[in-house]
């Protein structure tokens, strides 16, 4: 069983900053990953590509690195739009309650074959799939098992471009 090796915050919770990217292909579909909790294998959810910001890295650089590691898609920092969303979330994962502060960007990418070559051991254990989704099909089929819960609503707005207003979500508690 894996453990969460994030630094502890003042309250004793594993806590990190992360960068996430909502990727759109040329057809307006979004790339989502499906994962499960190794501690609760029956529990699964869909989410955007991304992960922890490393020391001396800014959110934009981390987002570019994470997209490449998790998909094999190469982006430049200037390919990212935003940050379009900032979220503070608390969730249960690997039998602990964790906190994550996330910077979200949007970008266009080709819907090419995806690579798992850059995945960490934990990602190989808990990520089950990556798929390009039509936003309406995702909303109909995923049935709320997506985080952040509003991401498909935002994707509909951002598909044609971003209005320059960064959304802030705080105190998000996920199952």
From TrEMBL:
Query: Which keywords describe this protein according to UniProt?
Result: Hydrolase, Magnesium
Q: Give one GO molecular function term.
A: hydrolase activity
Domain (Nudix hydrolase): residue spans on this chain: 14-155
Q: Is Isomerase one of the keywords? A: no
What does this protein need as cofactor?
Mg(2+)
Q: Where are the transmembrane segments?
A: none
Q: Name one Pfam family in it.
A: NUDIX
> In the Enzyme Commission scheme, what number(s) does this protein have?
3.6.1.-
Checking InterPro entries in the record gives:
NUDIX_hydrolase-like_dom_sf, NUDIX_hydrolase_CS, NUDIX_hydrolase_dom
Q: Which SUPFAM superfamilies match?
A: Nudix
Listed CDD domains: NUDIX_Hydrolase
Q: What is this protein called?
A: RNA pyrophosphohydrolase
What species was this sequence derived from? Answer: Schaalia odontolytica
Q: Source gene?
A: rppH
């Amino acid at each position: 069983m894996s453990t969460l090796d994030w630094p502890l915050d003042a309250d004793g919770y594993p806590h990190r900053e992360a960068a996430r990217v909502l990727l759109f292909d040329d057809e307006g579909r979004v790339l989502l990953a499906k994962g499960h909790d190794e501690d609760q294998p029956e529990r699964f959810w869909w989410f955007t590509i991304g992960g922890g910001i490393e020391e001396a890295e800014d959110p934009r650089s981390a987002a570019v690195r994470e997209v490449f590691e998790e998909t094999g898609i190469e982006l430049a920092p200037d390919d990212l739009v935003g940050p379009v969303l900032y979220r503070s979330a608390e969730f249960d994962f690997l039998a602990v309650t964790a906190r994550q502060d996330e910077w979200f960007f949007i970008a266009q990418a080709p819907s090419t074959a995806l690579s798992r070559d850059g995945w960490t051991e934990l990602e190989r254990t808990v990520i089950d799939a990556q798929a390009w989704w039509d936003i309406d099909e995702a909303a109909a089929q995923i049935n709320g098992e997506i985080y952040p819960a509003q991401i498909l609503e935002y994707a509909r707005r951002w598909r044609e471009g971003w209005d320059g207003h960064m959304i802030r979500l705080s105190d998000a508690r996920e199952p």
